[in-house]
Structures are given as structure tokens and as C-alpha cells.
Write a structure and sequence with these properties.
Helices cover 50% and strands 4% of the residues. By secondary structure, it is mainly α. GO terms for molecular function: DNA binding.
């Protein structure tokens, strides 16, 4: 109810029962000027509708309030050369293995943090992800280069339960993973902002550019629908290579 509390505070001098769609639109316009995201605006609208329609029992009180359209942003990716440079600029072997798995296996940050030692299947060259998004298990690729570094890492760092653990044991910090990727990308002088999810996007895009079937990429990423995976066709370089530029 935090969103509704902000709405109430904005109209502190008015009786809530007297507010109409004009008041709400004016409030939403104020939020837009503050550069609030569409997701934020939708949560504001939901909180207002919940109060009037559920708490006060006034159905469809504000049914004419227009919701912002869902944003469709293209995924941020970096080139394979930039990925390799980022890996080369990590601080130590542990950090290197983290980046190699994020990219080479297309992992979400949470999936990387949840990995156990036994989830690395070196015989089949696969990584098992348990209870991923949607509470589904899946398998994804294991890089040969990553495996070589993981073996050296395991001998040196000796993790007990999770593949990557904090200094005092237990699960590794999510913020630490973000910092590892960010710091390495700055050292590599990559011009765009790079996050763990950028590496996952890059993994998918580079596979598509290499001719891997979209359905196979969907399985590796754990997407429920091919429509989610199709976004990578909008950034894959080979999508545009067959199109002759009119200037040329």
C-alpha cells in the first residue's frame, strides 16, 4: 500500500471520496515528469483501484484511467570479443569462473548463486539448474574452457556446498556478482553498461548468430514461450547481413 500512501499524501487536503479521474490523471502526469517507469505507474494505478474497488466496494470507479503501454526494449548485448576481454580483466580465478558461467551457460544471476558442486556435469558437459524461474529444472551448456578453470578453482578454493561461496561460507552475494561484472567491464573499457543479465543476453544472441535453432536457445535459457526468445532476432547481426543498404 506504499504507492497508495504516496497518492494520499499528494491529496492530503482533499476528501478521498471526492477524488475523480481528473485528479488521478494529474497525479500520474506528475509521476511521468519524475521519469517513473511504466511498471511503477501500473503499480500506482493498481493500488488506487484496489482501495476504491475492493476496500470501499466501489467497482469500476476508475475504469477509464488509461494504463501506460508495456515497454519493449531491446536486450543490451556485447560482442564476443568484448566478453573475452571482460573475462581477461577479472581479478582472480573465482571471478573468472563466475563470468565464464554467466556467459558460457547463459545463467541468470540467481541461478548462478544457487549452483551446487554436483550441478556441474563434466561427463556430459552440462550444467543442471534446479528450480529455476517457474520452478522448473533445466540443463544448459558447459564450456570446456569454463570447466578447466572450474577444476583449478575447486582445488584452490575448496567450496563445501555451493559452487560459489562467501568468505565465511554459505551462498555468495548477488551484489558481489554484479560488482565483479561491472568492475571487469570498466577495466576492459567496454563502453556500454554491463550486468550479469547482459552476459545472458549475449550468450543467446551469439548462439543465434552462429546458426543455433531458436527452439534450442529457448530450452537453454528456460523460456516458457518462443516469443520471449524471439527478441534476440532483433539484435542478432545475421538478421541484417542479407539486407542490402539502400545507400550502397
Amino acid at each position: 500500500m506504499l504507492f497508495f500512501e504516496h497518492f494520499i499524501n499528494h491529496h492530503h487536503d482533499k476528501d478521498l471520496n471526492t477524488l475523480n479521474e481528473t485528479h488521478i490523471r494529474a497525479y500520474l502526469q506528475r509521476l511521468i515528469r519524475q521519469n517513473k517507469s511504466n511498471s511503477y505507474l501500473n503499480q500506482v494505478i493498481n493500488s488506487i483501484k484496489f482501495y476504491y474497488e475492493v476496500v470501499l466496494g466501489m467497482p469500476n470507479r476508475f475504469y477509464e484511467i488509461e494504463r501506460p503501454r508495456k515497454e519493449h526494449k531491446l536486450p543490451q548485448i556485447i560482442s564476443k570479443e568484448e566478453v573475452l576481454s571482460l573475462i581477461a580483466h577479472t581479478n582472480n580465478l573465482k571471478h573468472k569462473c563466475i563470468v565464464e558461467l554467466l556467459y558460457g551457460s547463459g545463467l541468470r544471476r540467481s541461478e548462478l548463486l544457487n549452483l551446487k558442486i554436483e550441478d556441474i556435469d563434466s561427463k556430459r558437459m552440462l550444467v543442471r539448474i534446479k528450480q529455476a524461474k517457474g520452478n522448473k529444472d533445466r540443463l544448459t551448456l558447459l564450456s570446456q574452457n569454463a570447466l578447466l578453470d572450474l577444476r583449478k578453482y575447486y582445488k584452490s578454493w575448496k567450496p563445501k556446498e555451493y559452487l560459489f561461496e562467501g568468505q565465511r561460507g554459505g551462498q555468495y552475494s548477488g551484489q558481489a556478482v554484479v560488482n565483479i561484472v561491472k568492475n571487469a567491464s570498466l577495466k576492459a573499457r567496454i563502453k556500454v553498461s554491463v550486468t550479469p543479465h547482459t552476459l545472458r543476453h549475449s550468450f543467446a544472441t551469439h548462439l543465434l548468430e552462429a546458426g543455433v535453432d531458436l527452439r534450442q536457445i529457448q530450452v537453454l535459457l528456460g523460456h516458457q514461450s518462443t516469443k520471449t526468445t524471439e527478441i534476440y532476432t532483433h539484435v542478432a547481426a545475421n538478421t541484417f547481413k542479407t539486407i542490402k543498404n539502400p545507400l550502397d
